[in-house]
Amino acid sequence: MKKRKNWKVLILTLLVVYLVAFIGSIFTSSNTNTEWYNSIKPSITPPNWVFPIVWNVLFFLIALSLYFSWIGSKKENRTKIALVFGINLVLNVLWSFLFFSLKNPLLSFFEIILLELSILSMILITFKINKISSYLLWPYLLWVFFAGILNFLMAF
Q: Can you give the pLDDT at residue 1?
């Protein structure tokens, strides 16, 4: 069976995911060199230049995962896909807002747990549709888990 390609869906998934990335960066980018952030970040925190590189790769993988699961799913599963990815992307932006804008590491730590659970949900749902789509999300989960450790160290 020939795999189908849908360029419109691919472009749309990239646009949606990178729009969310842009919104999150509004809260983040101007706050990574502040006195507040530098005073609380743990010594194991990577240099600031690492984060935009990693996040751009991760957002690309998220968009591909969304694309592969969308085109590989039956129409009745697309609402579930849109919901789980949508919740995740909202939680992703919310973390940046809570941490960098509100400067609340404690609240953002509890929120990052929800973010991790939403990534696990994405992995489980996409695995049933397209295993590659699911595998593409593992680096995201691992990075957010590492971010959770950093967040924990700053909150407690």
A: 43
Q: Is 42 helix (H, G, I), strand (E, B) or coil?
A: coil
Rounded to whole angstroms, the Cα distance separating 122 from 13 reads: 15
Q: Which residue has the tokens 């590189």?
A: 53
The residue type of 58 is L
- Record the pTM: 0.95
Burial of 103 by CB count in 10 Å (0-12 exposed, 13-18 middle, 19+ buried)?
middle
User: How far is Cα 25 from Cα 15, in angstroms, rounded to an integer?
Assistant: 15
User: Which residues neighbour 8 within 8 Å (Cβ) at sequence distance 6 or greater?
Assistant: none
Residue the block writes with tokens 């680096």: 139
- 136-141: long-range contacts, CB 8 A cutoff, minimum separation 24: 136/61, 136/62, 136/64, 136/65, 136/68, 137/61, 137/62, 137/65, 139/57, 139/58, 139/61, 140/58, 140/61, 140/62, 141/116
Tell me the two tokens of residue 46: 């990577």
Question: What length is written for the chain?
Answer: 156
Q: Please say if the pLDDT value at position 3 is more than 70.
A: no
